[in-house]
Design brief:
The protein has 272 residues and is an alpha+beta fold. It has two domains: 72 residues, Arc Repressor Mutant, subunit A (Orthogonal Bundle), CATH 1.10.10.10; 162 residues, 2-Layer Sandwich (Endonuclease, Chain A). Helices cover 52% and strands 20% of the residues. The protein has a seven-stranded mixed sheet with strand order 3-9-8-7-4-5-6, sandwiched between helices. A two-stranded antiparallel sheet has the order 1-2. It is elongated, with a radius of gyration of 29 Å.
């Protein structure tokens, strides 16, 4: 169905009969209304109304030859080019008009997103929106889905830093090997990401079961700062603890030592 041009024309607002008639004109022209009815499958009682709508849309034209009216298509590149320009102008005007009606949003809200496909789509949208920098932590299973969008961002000059448990090929990007504990890997099944763009948006997602993927998105300045701070500082933690040696035990409060011990175990396990 995705490869059917009739379906695509209908998506653009054509009726089924209009779509069939235009496709038939492309295949054979010029033709009379009677011939077009036979070629397209549009009933004879409807064909002249349908072709009239195509002419009004700029998709077809009428020709008088020897006293007989025949019809021909406007070439697709010309017709679709005009359609594209009209839609582009309409969208631009509508965007301006709706923006003028929109009250200033409350940027403290959090959106909850369900489903792996929806989460990946939101991540791709954010990556495409990025203008300056992208910080992204993800599992290897998620890398192939977002790699094309990341490469496009790099091509546009956006600074891309990816934190991954293993090396990945990302020309022009900066890949940081960030060890992840076995406990963390056991909690997720294929999807785990933290994405921050331009210091103004964050998306945090995980998949806890074959059919249970969820994420949260926000533009809250505080939550964005916390997420970016976590991404950019956590990889240094094992090295800092190693440098401190036994003194780390004196500095870290007793109730937090188990947490820091996990970080060290994760680092040691990745090296081994």
């Amino acid at each position: 169905m995705d490869s059917d041009p009739i379906e695509k024309l209908m998506t653009l607002g054509f009726s089924e009969y209009e779509s069939k008639a235009y496709i038939a004109l492309l295949r054979e022209n010029p033709v009379t209304g009677y011939q077009l009815s036979k070629l397209s499958g549009v009933p004879r009682s409807m064909i002249y109304e349908v072709v009239g709508k195509l002419i009004a849309r700029g998709a077809a034209m009428s020709l008088r030859q020897k006293g007989v009216v025949r019809y021909a298509p406007v070439p697709p590149e010309e017709f679709l080019g005009q359609l594209h320009r009209e839609h582009e102008s309409l969208i631009t005007a509508l965007q301006q008009e709706l923006s003028a009606l929109t009250a200033a949003p409350d940027m403290e809200y959090v959106w909850n997103i369900e489903g792996r496909g929806n989460i990946i789509a939101k991540a791709e949208e954010m990556i495409h929106q990025a203008e300056r920098e992208i910080y992204l932590s993800l599992t290897p299973a998620t890398i192939p889905e977002l790699r094309p969008a990341l490469l496009e961002a790099i091509r546009k000059g956006v600074r891309v830093v990816v934190y991954s448990p293993e090396a990945m090929d990302l020309p022009g990007g900066h890949v940081v090997i960030a060890p992840v504990s076995e406990e963390a890997f056991e909690r997720v099944e294929g999807l785990w990401l933290i994405l921050v763009i331009d210091e103004n948006q964050v998306l945090i997602g995980e998949q806890l079961g074959a059919l249970q993927a969820r994420a949260s998105w926000t533009s809250s300045p505080l939550l964005v700062f916390i997420a970016e701070h976590h991404l950019r500082t956590d990889p240094y933690l094992p090295q800092v603890l190693t440098c401190l040696g036994e003194r780390a035990g004196e500095i870290i409060r007793e109730e937090d030592r188990e947490l820091f011990a996990r970080a060290m175990e994760s680092h040691i396990g990745s090296v081994e």
